[in-house]
Design a protein that fits this description.
Number of helices: 2
Shape: elongated
Radius of gyration: 15 Å
Mean pLDDT: 96
Number of strands: 0
Distance between the termini: 14 Å
């Protein structure tokens, strides 16, 4: 397996993970709006979304840098 193939596999995995984290974030926002979930849970969910998007951007740039 070449480095480019490994980067592509990691990119696909992080895309799937990001979709799940964003769906969880939307669910958390809806729960906070309905006063079902405490507002502090929104901060945790926002940090997870930011970390996931940061990893996604890093892996995309890393994949594009491979020749």
């Amino acid at each position: 397996m070449s480095l480019k193939n490994a980067a592509l596999l990691a990119l696909i995995g992080i895309i799937l993970l990001t979709v799940l984290v964003v769906a969880s974030f939307v669910s958390t926002v809806m729960g906070v709006m309905r006063d079902v979930i405490p507002a502090m849970a929104l901060l945790t969910s926002l940090v997870h979304v930011f970390a996931s998007l940061s990893a996604l951007v890093f892996l995309y740039v890393f994949y594009r840098a491979q020749t």
